[in-house]
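Let us practice reading a record.
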Amino acid sequence: MKRWTIAMLMAVSTVLLGGCATGTIRSSVTAFHEWPATLPSKSYVFERTKEQNDSLEYRSYENLVRNELARLGFEEAPASVKPALKASLSYNISSRDVREVQPVVVHPYPYWYGPAWRGYYRPFYGPFYDPFWYAPPVVEQRVSQYTLFTRQLKIQLAEMAGGKKLYETTVVSEGTNSSLAAVMPYMVRSAFTDFPGPSGVPRRVELKLEQ
């Protein structure tokens, strides 16, 4: 009985530790590309819709993409220079209600609990003296309800002349945070992780949240 109880406690601890996945943003990233071995120029401009051009939120996310492109050696072309590439991005967020039923291991009573006949002057009972210490735990069903948000980001790089697409990536991230602005920096970084990466191969990118 003692060995069984210890094994069960270890299993419960493992489940609890495995569930502590806070502090990270996980994204599913899929990129399709026909990236050339060499590019004559890495100059680019952003191509915006009218709605995007009037959106402060969009411009904030555009700056995130601009920083990542600069890290990869791309240069935003000034107005006087004809760029070789054009970049575009779009994003959205949706939500759905989730209901989960999970088994939870609960001890039927704590170690200090005992029958009433022990009385006021009952002695201390430890694992080697209390016959109720090793009682098997009880599995209860716990119901949890929450809203799950799906955040999606799409980024494209295409040739300015002719509009041939060279790179397009889709980033999908799910979580309980409803703020797209809070998650977007990590999604943009995930979009360009190992750029250009394998074409058409879904990847899982995990980034630690910065304090």
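A brief commentary: The beta strands are 24-33, 43-46, 75-76, 85-106, 138-159, 165-175, 203-208.
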